[in-house]
Model the fold of this input.
Amino acid sequence: MIILRPIRIKDLDSLLDLASMTRFGLTSLPPDKEILKRRVQESLQGFSKMVEKPGGETYLFVLEDLDKKKVVGISGIVSKVGGFEPFYAYGIKTVVHESETLKIRKEIRVLKLVREHNGPCEIGSLFLHPDYRGKNSCGRLLSLGRFLFMADKQEFFDPVVIAEMRGVIDDNGRSPFWECVGRHFFDMDFPKADYLSMRDKRFIAELMPAYPIYLTLLPKKAQDVIDKVHDHTQPALNLLRSEGFEFSGMVDIFEAGPIVTCPLEKIRTVRESEIMPVNKIVTQRIDSDLFLISNTKSEFRACTAPLAIVPGLGIEVTRETASALKIKKGDAVRIASLRPGGLAPLAKRSTA
Done:
C-alpha cells in the first residue's frame, strides 16, 4: 500500500537519497543535507500551526511504500510566496514599435523581471523515485493528494496557486536560456546559480538585469526553449493542465520553464472532491476503479483505493485502506476521482 503523508524528521536521509536522483533544475530539492533539514523543519512548523491566513508556511509530503517501509516520493506546498525574500520570474510582455514615417508597426515580445512580495500559493518540490513512475497511480497520488489537504484547509493558502515547471536542461546541467542570458550577468554555470538561489536569493536582485530583454535579440536556441519544459516534466505539466492550470505568462528566470496557475477553488480535485462518512469497513475486495481518499484528521494521510458508495449512508472501504488512512467506521473522509469526471462514475454498490 502506498500513502501520502506529511514529512517527518526521520525521513531526512530518504529525502537526501531522492534529491541525489533529481539531477539538475529542481531548485527546491538540492542534494544538500543542511538545506533539506531546514526545509523539513520548516514543514514541521507549518503543519503544527493553525493559521488564520497564509504567511509563507511550508508543507512537505512524502509518498511511502508501507510494505517496504520506504519513502519513494516528495511533493510540497508553500502557502504564499514572497515576503522576506521576493518571488522572481520573467513576465513575457509584448511591446509595440511603430513608425508613422515608414508605415511600420512591430509587436515584439520582451522579458520583464517580476518581483513579487505578496504572491500566490506555490506547489512544487515534486519528485517520484524512477522505480515507481507509471506504477499504481503513484504520480497522481503524489501530485493530487496534496490538493485534498488544500481542499480541507483552504484558509491556509493564498486563493491563487502557481507551479514552476522545470525548463529545458541537458544531462550535463546546461540550460540554453541560461547560457545566452544569465551567464552574462552571473558569471557562473547554471547548476551553481540554481543551488545558490536556494541558499540566498539576494544575489538575484543584485545581478539580474533590471531592464526588459528583447527576445528577438536572443539566439534562436534560447528563444526555442522559453516556456518549454524538460522531457521528464511533461507528464507533470499534462496532469496540472487536466486539473485546470494554465500558462501564467511568466517563466523561470534561470532556465525559462513555464509557470502555470489556477485559482485554488477551481482546481479540479478541490472542486470535485466531497466529504463522506465511512459507513462500513469490509474484508472482501471492492470492485471499482481507484479513487483518491484522504482522512480529515490532524495527522493527514491520503491514498488511492477502490471504494463503494452506499446511497444516503456513506462509503465502504477495505480494511487495508482503513488501516493505511488510520480511519474507523463513522469517520469522515474526503474523496475525489483520479481523473477528470467527478464522482459520478463511482461504482455504487450496497452490501446491506
Observations:
- The longest strand covers residues 82-99.
